[in-house]
Amino acid sequence: MSGHSNYEPKYAATRWLDTRLPIFRFTADFMGFPSPRNLNYWYAFGAILSLCLMSQILTGIILAMHYTPTVDAAFDSVQRIKRDVPFGWLLQSMHAVGASMFFFAVYIHMFRGLYYGSYKAPRELVWIIGCLIYLIMMATGFLGYTLPWGQMSFWGATVITGFFGAIPIVGESLQQWLLGGFSVDNPTLQRFFSLHFVLPFVIVGLVGIHIWAVHHVGQNNPIGIDVKSEEDTLAFHPYYTMKDAFAIAVFLMIFALFIFYLPDALGHADNYQRANPLVTPEHIVPEWYFLPFYAILRAVPDKLMGILLMFAAIMVLFVLPWLDTAKTRSMRFRPVARWFFIIFLLACFILGWCGARAPDDIAIPIGDGITFKWLSRIATFYYFAFFIPILPILGWVEKTKPLPDSITKAINEGTA
Amino acid sequence: MAQMQSHDDEQAEPTRRDFIYIATAATAAVGAGSLAWPLVAQMGAAADTLAAGSIEIDLSKLSEGQQIKVLWRGKPVFVRYRTPKEIAEADSVDMAVLPDPQTDDERLRANPGGTLNKQFLVMVGVCTHFGCIPVGEAGDFDGWYCPCHGSHYDTSGRIRKGPAPDNMVIPNYEYLSDTVIKVG
Asked: Span A107-116, mean pLDDT?
């Protein structure tokens, strides 16, 4: 994967294998991969995410053995899994809570990349493939949320597929094609199940490419300077396998807390009601991990513009490597950009808060009161302003702090 | 040798080999296309879904101020027996203030006698924003209010305020008699 290899087969059998299918060489190089020696715990989320993906696939395959994807039986079959199937309560909860944990980890992973400049040359493709994985994760999460066929499942699916109906001219036909009819119904549920099953395997493929790309260019690190010599690195195993294992243990404790004590805390009570095409719930909200985008959608009074802006909020991430013109990768050495990043983080949280509340309610009681609609408009404005023009301009005008000569030197001076 | 020759006289007539290449590629493209189309088209509405067609609604069961919801093609159809006040409100609107201008009369269908039953409003009860079901007798215009993203409709089902772009849709329907309509 990474050019040179230190693997030497010891036995006749492994030598025989190595000349035919160098699978041990591949594993040895992978485990011995030289990683920067200053990686902190924010870098453990790659391993955590791999675990999340495996857990979702394993529990998902099992759930599919008990689930029935028809509008008459879906709701009951999920309840049956929770109540009657041996350990179904555990596996269903692992899968549903697991989706939230997966998104929680992916957001930390992305913000980490944003803060340490992991999207900059030569890691643009690592970042872009990551964005693609995130996009497919969102699709998979949405499709999966439809399957229990509760009220939120049904109306979430109606609203999201409605986005496509907003496209001029072809919108209505496109929407009918996606739904397989005039409204969200049995054909919709069955195709959503099929796609929800297959997309995670697409993610597995993309994760393989994502890791391949990382191994080709080498990992970034908290101070964002290149590895200059072997003393700047440590072998992935045992150093980072152990560090990742500890992070995974802590992560699993939080995961377990939700599975065993708060299995429904991240869901919505309305989804315990059977889907009813005649009644819309009082207050439709998506899962928490979509709330910021939902707030951007609702910040705009025009339907099509709202949708375009929401998609733009994701698409802008794909071109980020070319928007940020700064040569210095890590924000540790960018005193001004650092503050703009912190405000950006805050704007994302504010958008999430706005997405969860009714647009006309008062968010901040100053004067006549600032409504959530206006608060989400301000946060949406900043969300986009951060990418254009703040990051491009900062690259030219910001005076960055001096970079250490090497990772090892920075560690010895206690600044890594 | 054949390669050398064809390289030397590039301006020469196309050879039989060129023809075979193009013919093969064209056949493969048509073949791939005709295989891809069924894979794409299968997702469209199936024949039984399309055939689930029309329903009849008996209006005589409604009394003034009442509204019924009937499921048609997976969506609710609202039939509302409007009060004189609601009809007057729908008629008195200035067209200039409407985002999607339509008179109340344009949104009704004539009965067999050729007159408009102004009291009966028939429409697809789906918000034109993202497809939620609006709540009746609510909102700033006495009509419908969509709880999802805050669109207000008037007593004729026309959009007045909020993110929805269009009036609620009037389905294809006709009066079979003075009290029975057929939708679809």
From this structure: 98
A346 domain residue, yes or no: yes
Residue A3 has a CB neighbour count (10 Å cut-off) of: 7
**Does residue A218 sit at the B interface (CB-CB below 8 Å)?**
no
Banded pLDDT at B2 (limits 50, 70, 90): very low
Read off the CATH number of the domain in which A270 is found: 1.20.810.10
pLDDT value at A259 more than 50:
yes
A213 and A150 fall within a common domain = yes
The pTM for the full model equals 0.90
Instruction: Collect all residues of chain A within an 8 Å Cβ-Cβ radius of residue B75.
Output: 182-183, 277
- One domain, residues A245 and A338: no
Across the interface, whether the CB atoms of A277 and B149 are under 8 A apart is answered no
Residues A257 and A307 both lie in one domain: no
All residues of chain A having their beta carbon less than 8 Å from the beta carbon of residue B134 are 280
* ipTM of the complex model: 0.78
Listed residue (B168, B172, B159, B33) closest to B100, CA to CA:
B159
A347 with A236, same domain: the answer is no
- The answer to whether the CB of A44 falls within 8 A of the CB of A244 is yes
Q: How far apart are CA A374 and CA A362, in angstroms?
A: 9
Question: What CA–CA distance (Å, rounded) separates A261 from A213?
Answer: 39
Q: Closest by alpha carbon to B75, among B171, B174, B180, B182? A: B171
- Please name the residues between 155 and 174 in chain A that touch chain B, using a CB distance below 8 Å: 155, 158-159, 161-163, 165-166
- Does residue A194 form part of some domain? yes
Whether residues A116 and A254 fall in one domain: yes
**Residue B80 distance to chain A (closest CA, Å):** 16
Establish if A19 belongs to a structural domain.
no
Pick the range with the lowest mean pLDDT from A178-192, A312-326, B51-65, B81-95. Answer: B51-65
Of B43, B69, B131, the CB nearest to A180: B43
Whether A89 and A142 map to the same domain: the answer is yes
Residue A30 one-letter amino acid: F
Same domain, A258 and A301: no
B60: number of Cβ within 10 Å: 9
Number of domains in chain A: 2
A117-163: pLDDT as tens digits: 999 999 999 999 999 999 999 999 999 999 999 999 999 999 899 88
Q: Are A73 and A145 contained in the same domain?
A: yes
B7 part of the active site = no
The residues pairing with A64 across neighbouring beta strands, listed in sequence order, are: none
Q: Tell me the pLDDT tens digit for each residue of B15-71.
A: 899 999 999 999 999 999 999 999 999 999 898 888 777 888 998 888 888 999 998
